[in-house]
Design a protein that fits this description.
The chain has 10 helices and 4 strands. By secondary structure, the protein is mainly alpha-helical. A two-stranded antiparallel ribbon has the order 1-2. Strand 1 and strand 2 form a beta hairpin.
């Protein structure tokens, strides 16, 4: 092992740590029934890709399973279903994070709510943040002056200041680290040694995470979710103040139009007198002559 090969932040090691913070998995018996909890490695990776490219269509866990496993193990950097070297996608994502952070935060917030365990009893979310901070601090290929957009509103924080964090917005932090990976670590193979140490080979069986990243640091760290889903209402707010004179005027002018107050004289009033049955009512429109024949 080369002197400075371990540890390394990349897409595979980021995904490996994220997978340690998933919601509770479905029981095996329910899997046998054909149900799916949506928390497979391939589905989680597809969710992360959709944060980068909201138009990305998940090809399905059957097609993505092998590429996802190879990406997690840092064996590949991209592929047919893994567009991590698409320069247009990378540039567009980089621009949106820097200029439309609230919208990108909304995407990562949706990912967090869909996949990660936000319960406080185990504290998986806080452990994930501590693990990533530990990885960033120990990765000497990232200079201490490097700035990451990990603030809730996209604020940049230097690597050297990560140890001073006390309050962290979970989706904003993940968005900033994932943004750094997508833009700066297109070569996923740099994390191969890190993955092999974290998840030792079992001779072909599942490789469990056995590392202890994040333990013993920032024990008082507070990790929180944003109050909203991250999209700010950009509509102009209109404030209407009460004006007593205008309100009184509105009362006078509202409702049916007022009648002209000038008296109206009717020179031809109608007088109706009706007694008994079979009578005929004749309005008084002047003189009416009735000639008998």
């Amino acid at each position: 092992m080369a002197k400075n090969d371990y540890p390394r932040l990349c897409g595979g090691t980021f995904l490996t740590l994220v997978l340690q913070a998933l919601k509770q998995r479905m029981k095996a018996r329910e899997h046998y029934k054909g149900d799916c909890d949506g928390l497979t490695d391939s589905e989680v990776l597809a969710g992360l890709i959709q944060v980068v490219d909201p138009d990305y269509v998940n090809p399905g866990k059957d097609l993505l399973k092998t590429p996802a496993n190879n990406y997690k193990a840092c064996r590949i950097s991209s592929g047919v279903y893994l567009p991590f070297r698409d320069r247009q996608m990378i540039q567009a994502f980089d621009t949106r994070v820097k200029t439309h952070h609230a919208e990108e935060l909304a995407g990562m917030t949706s990912f967090v709510r869909a996949y990660l365990d936000l319960g406080e009893s185990v504290g998986r979310a806080a452990n994930l943040v501590r693990s990533l901070i530990d990885l960033l601090q120990k990765d000497d290929s990232i200079p201490d002056t490097e700035e990451l957009n990990i603030g809730e509103h996209g604020e940049k924080i230097k690597k050297a200041a990560l140890g001073d964090l006390s309050n962290v917005c979970l989706p904003a932090f993940l968005l900033g680290v994932w943004h750094y990976v997508i833009v700066n670590r297109t070569d996923n193979s740099v994390g191969r040694t890190t993955y092999d140490i974290w998840c030792p080979s079992t001779g072909g069986g599942p490789r469990d995470y056995t590392a202890s990243m994040g333990e013993g640091i920032l024990e008082d760290l507070i990790v929180y979710m944003p109050e909203s889903d991250g999209v700010e209402d950009t509509a102009d707010e209109v404030i209407i103040e009460a004006d007593p004179e205008k309100e009184q005027q509105a009362e006078w002018t509202s409702g049916p139009a007022k009648q002209d107050e000038t008296p109206v004289v009717n020179n031809n009033p109608i007088f109706i007198q009706q007694n008994g049955d079979g009578n005929m009512v004749i309005p008084n429109y002047g003189t009416i002559n009735i000639n008998k024949r």
